[in-house]
Amino acid sequence: MFLARLLRRRRRPDLHFTLFTRQVCHLCDDAEAVLRQAQQRYGFDLETKDVDTKPEWVEQYGDCVPVVLVNGKVRFRGKVNGVLLQKIVDADG
To answer: Residue 53 falls within a domain, yes or no?
Structure first.
């Protein structure tokens, strides 16, 4: 029964998530944990980037981290909303 449900899960290799983080950011850690769990389930690509490694990212995102882009579009700021995340992975590509 569990295996059948696992096999029915829709894989989403067409989705690319980019998580902009900062060192010592508990919200960033929480967002990454949620995204990693979803990544295991749906198989999308997840990349993490430290905002402080590039001045243009510091200017663009400031202290508003975590920021999550999905296929280049900002979808989350500050917290990953589980309901919206589910809608994104369930949507037709």
So the answer is: yes
pLDDT at 93 over 90: no
What is the distance between the alpha carbons of residues 27 and 15, in angstroms, rounded to a whole number?
Answer: 22
Q: Which of these, 80, 72, 93, 73, lies nearest to 10 by C-alpha position?
A: 93
The CATH number of the domain where 43 resides is what?
3.40.30.10
| Residue 50, domain extent | 12-90
**6-62 confidence digits (pLDDT tens):** 445 678 999 999 999 999 999 999 999 999 999 999 999 999 999 999 999 999 998
Distance CA 48, CA 39 (A): 13
Which residues does residue 84 pair with via DSSP β-bridges, in sequence order? none
Distance linking the first and last C-alpha atoms of the chain: 28
Residue 69's CB: how many other CB atoms inside 10 A?
16
